Amino acid sequence: MIAPKIGPVRPYGLFGVGLMKAHVDLNPVNIVSFTDNQFAWDLGGGVMVMFGQHVGIRGEIRHFHSFQSFLGLPIGSDTKLNFGRASA
Question: In the predicted model, is pLDDT for residue 68 greater than 80?
Answer without folding.
Answer: no
